[in-house]
Amino acid sequence: MHFKVELPDWVLEESAKLPEVMPTLESQMEAVIRFSKLNYEKDTGGPFAAGIFEKETGKRVVIGVNRVVPGNNSTAHAEIVTIAMAQAMLKTFDLGGPEMPNYRLVVNARPCAMCFGSIPWSGVRSLAFAACGEEVEKITGFDEGPIHPQWQQELRNRDIEVIEHVMAEQAYEVFREFANSGSPIYNGRGGDS
Ligand SMILES: [Zn+2]
Fold first, then answer.
1. How confident is the model at residue 134 (pLDDT cuts 50, 70, 90)?
2. CA of 118 to the centre of ligand 1 (A)
3. Span from the CA of 77 to the centroid of ligand 1 (angstroms)
């Protein structure tokens, strides 16, 4: 038995057009937000994308997208897919291992409860995100789950940098387009059901 998560072909095609080194956080986020839009437009998953980059140089490891619905996998959020892809490509379960550069996870929206939990396990040393969770829930109806109230501090206590609201307005614009598109909203069970 096994399960696998695959990135759609367009991700590889679009990634090949990007420079290998994307030195500014804005250039990284711009690509991630664009991939989040393409993912729902091409019907290959929800409007979420994430990238792993070397923190100091901006060298791109991988940009991944949400694959929940096409993969029949509730855990295939963009962050989980992207972390797993990077670890498979770099052949390590720990992106914070010895002799490795520091890695940054760049996401178009605040991690949900599950993805927040995956960050300390992943070994990344930095998280940057665009849209805040409450606003995404308001626009789209996605339930982001019970994230710890001091979640940013919990990451910082573990030596993981947190950079919030990078190009948030551009990210909200994609969520608004998604909400108006009539695409399905999938969710986990709410707390009262
Ligand atoms: Zn998530």
1. confident
2. 9
3. 5
